[in-house]
Design brief:
CATH superfamily of the largest domain: dinb family like domain
Distance between the termini: 83 Å
CATH topology of the largest domain: Four Helix Bundle (Hemerythrin (Met), subunit A)
Strand order of the largest sheet: 1-7-6-5-4-3-2
CATH architecture of the largest domain: Up-down Bundle
Strand content: 15-25%
Largest sheet: 7 strands, antiparallel
Number of helices: 14
CATH class of the largest domain: Mainly Alpha
Oligomer: single chain
Length: 392
C-alpha cells in the first residue's frame, strides 16, 4: 500500500440507521457533503457527487450492510486512480460511533492523504451537526438574490427577487436585471452563475456585471454569509405560520383583482408579458410542483431537477383551460395552498427524525408565500394596463 490509511472517527448522538442513510441516500448525502448527489446503494451501484463550484467525484459501492457498514471507491475529475472509503457504524443506547477510513494504491496518495484527512474531518463535523441538530454548517456565499433562467435567447440570469439589506440590494441591483458576469467569469445560465458564486469566499469583493433595459451596468459587491433561518420546532407550528402567510397574501391578491373582469384579466400588458390570469395560473402550477417536491423529500426520493422550468405558456394555458375565470383561478390557488398546509400538519415521525430534511423543508415553505407576493406587482401592472387600454 502506497502512503497511509486515513482514519477519522466521530461519535454522533443519533441512530446508526440515519448515519447509514447519510452515505446511501442521494438527498441525505447532499444535506451534509455535497450539493447534488446520485446514489444507487447496492453492490456495484454507482455514486456521483457534485458541488456548486463545479467539482465532482464519482465511484461505486463495494459493500453495504444496513446500519453497520458502507464501502465505496471514488475519484475526482482529475484523479488518475480511485481511493477506497470504508465507513463502519456501531450504535449503543442511541449513540453511534462512526469510523471512516480512506486509502489508495495510487502513487500520489501520500500527498493526497493529508488533504483527504482535512476534508473528512470538516465533512464529518458537519455530519454530526446535521444529524444531531439539522443545521448545515457549511459556509454558503450569499449575494441576496433569487434568480431564474433568462428568456428569449438571452445569455445570463434574470433577477426575480432582491433581498433587503443583502449585498446586491446595497449595490443597487433591481428585480428584472439581467446578470451577465460575476468577477471575471461570464454567466450564461443558472448553473454557471452558481458555479461562479461558489468559487468565491465570504468577505471577497467582486464585480457584478448586469444590464437593465438594454443598458450595461456594473457594481462591486462583498460576498456575505447566507443568513440563518429560525425554524419552528414543531411541524404544527410551521403549518400555522405558513397558513397565516398564505391568508395575508391571498387577501392582497383578492384586493388587487377586485372588480376585474375576466376579459381584463386575460389582457397582457405587452407581447411576451403575462396577463393577470396567467400569473394566477403560474402560482397554481408552482404550488402543485411544491406538493411534488415535498412528497419526494418526505419519502427520501431523488429531487432532480429540484425545481422545473417555470412559466411554460402551454402549461399556463392548460391551467386556464381548466379554470377559465379569475374567481375559479383564485379558488384553485387557495385549494392548493390548503393542501400544502394539510401536508405540513401530517408530516410523519420518521421524516421529522431526519432533522436536516425537516430544516430544508421548513426553510422552503416559510419563504414560499413570498413567491405570490413577488408576483403581486406584476398582477397590478397587468390590470392597470388593461384598464388604460380600455379607456383609450
Amino acid at each position: 500500500m502506497t502512503g497511509k490509511t486515513v482514519t477519522v472517527k466521530r461519535t454522533i448522538v443519533a441512530p446508526a440507521e440515519l448515519a447509514y442513510l447519510a452515505f446511501t441516500n442521494a438527498n441525505a448525502i447532499a444535506e451534509w457533503l455535497c450539493d447534488l448527489a446520485l446514489a444507487y446503494p447496492y453492490p456495484s451501484g454507482r455514486l456521483y457527487l457534485q458541488w456548486r463550484d463545479g467539482r465532482a467525484r464519482m465511484g461505486t459501492y463495494t459493500a453495504l450492510v444496513n446500519g453497520k457498514k458502507v464501502a465505496f471507491n471514488w475519484r475526482g475529475d482529475e484523479d488518475e486512480d480511485a481511493s477506497q472509503v470504508s465507513v463502519t457504524l456501531a450504535e449503543k443506547d442511541g449513540t453511534t460511533t462512526l469510523t471512516l477510513t480512506e486509502s489508495s494504491e495510487s502513487k500520489g496518495w501520500s500527498k493526497q492523504a493529508a488533504q483527504a484527512e482535512t476534508f473528512w474531518n470538516a465533512a464529518l463535523d458537519n455530519l454530526v451537526s446535521v444529524l444531531e441538530t439539522g443545521e448545515d454548517r457549511r459556509e454558503r456565499p450569499y449575494l441576496g438574490l433569487e434568480i431564474s433562467p433568462a428568456s428569449n435567447g438571452e445569455e445570463g440570469v434574470r433577477v426575480l427577487h432582491v433581498f433587503a439589506e443583502g449585498p446586491a440590494h446595497q449595490a443597487g441591483v433591481q428585480v428584472g436585471d439581467l446578470i451577465t458576469a460575476l468577477g471575471s467569469e461570464r454567466v450564461s445560465d443558472v448553473l454557471s452563475y452558481e458555479a461562479a458564486l461558489h468559487r468565491h469566499n465570504v468577505g471577497e469583493r467582486l464585480k457584478l456585471a448586469f444590464s437593465r433595459d438594454g443598458k450595461k451596468l456594473s457594481a462591486t459587491v462583498t460576498v456575505a454569509r447566507a443568513p440563518k433561518v429560525t425554524i419552528p420546532e414543531s411541524h404544527e407550528e410551521l403549518a400555522e405560520i405558513v397558513a397565516r402567510k398564505y391568508t395575508e397574501v391571498n387577501r392582497d391578491l383578492t384586493q388587487a383583482l377586485k372588480g376585474v373582469s375576466d376579459d381584463r384579466a386575460a389582457r397582457a400588458p405587452a407581447p411576451g408579458q403575462w396577463s393577470a390570469r396567467q400569473v394566477l395560473a403560474h402560482l397554481i402550477e408552482s404550488e402543485r410542483y411544491l406538493h411534488h417536491w415535498l412528497t419526494c423529500l418526505i419519502a427520501g426520493e431523488l429531487l432532480i431537477p429540484e425545481w422545473p422550468p417555470s412559466g411554460m405558456r402551454e402549461r399556463l394555458d392548460a391551467v386556464i383551460n381548466g379554470f377559465p375565470t379569475v374567481q375559479a383561478l383564485l379558488t384553485e390557488l387557495k385549494r392548493n395552498e390548503a393542501e400544502t398546509v394539510a401536508l405540513l400538519n401530517a408530516l410523519p415521525a420518521a421524516f421529522l427524525a431526519r432533522k436536516a430534511s425537516y430544516r430544508r423543508l421548513a426553510e422552503t415553505v416559510l419563504d414560499w408565500p413570498n413567491h405570490a407576493r413577488e408576483h403581486l406587482e406584476q398582477i397590478k401592472h397587468a390590470v392597470r394596463h388593461a384598464k388604460a387600454f380600455e379607456a383609450w
